[in-house]
Design brief:
The structure is a single chain. The protein is of the alpha/beta class. The protein has one domain: 3-Layer(aba) Sandwich (Rossmann fold). Helix content is about 35%, strand content about 15%. Helix 4 links the parallel strand 4 and strand 5. The radius of gyration is 15 Å and the shape is globular.
Length: about 160
């Protein structure tokens, strides 16, 4: 069974000072991310990104915009020998459409646990919103709430020491 670090995208992986981030040229990786992920990888963790992308439902950007950005992010990570197993995202927003996948729903976590044979008890979700933590914990994953755009190196040592 895999042990996985689930990451919210906007605010955890990248700076979300501009709320809707969907173009690579405005995508700024948060400080310390690569070092944190490298340390986690070296301690046996894999990675999955789960995010709400409501800008799609609001017609601010498209699914294609998100897919293109994720491909560029994969290429960036590859230069550091980091692989994201999968990107799961909800493209709904309650003001526009109803769904079962938007965090704080655990559906995308449950889907990934089943698909990748993940040990939820040895996995963690790092998120910058309470809904990230709530969704993970409903799926049996320990949640770690951080301040948006903060340095993940501050939480990694706590994770690998357990």
């Amino acid at each position: 069974m895999l042990k996985v670090i689930f990451l919210d995208r906007d605010g955890v992986v990248n700076d979300n000072s501009d709320y809707y981030v969907y173009k690579w040229d405005s995508f700024k990786i948060n400080e310390g991310l690569i070092e944190a992920l490298t340390l986690l990888k070296n301690n046996g963790f894999d990675f999955i990104i789960i995010s709400n992308q409501s800008g799609i439902a609001k017609n601010i950007y498209s699914i294609n915009d998100v897919e293109v950005l994720h491909k560029k992010l994969d290429s960036y990570f590859k230069t550091f020998n980091i692989k994201i197993l999968e990107y799961y995202y909800c493209y709904h927003h309650p003001d526009v459409t109803l769904c079962l996948c938007r965090k704080p729903s655990p559906l995308l976590f449950e889907k990934s646990i089943a698909r990748f044979n993940i040990d939820a008890k040895k996995s963690y979700m790092i998120g910058d919103q309470q809904r990230d933590i709530e969704a993970a914990e409903k799926a049996g994953i320990k949640g770690i709430l951080i301040k948006s755009n903060s340095d993940l190196r501050n939480v990694v040592l706590d994770i690998i020491s357990k």
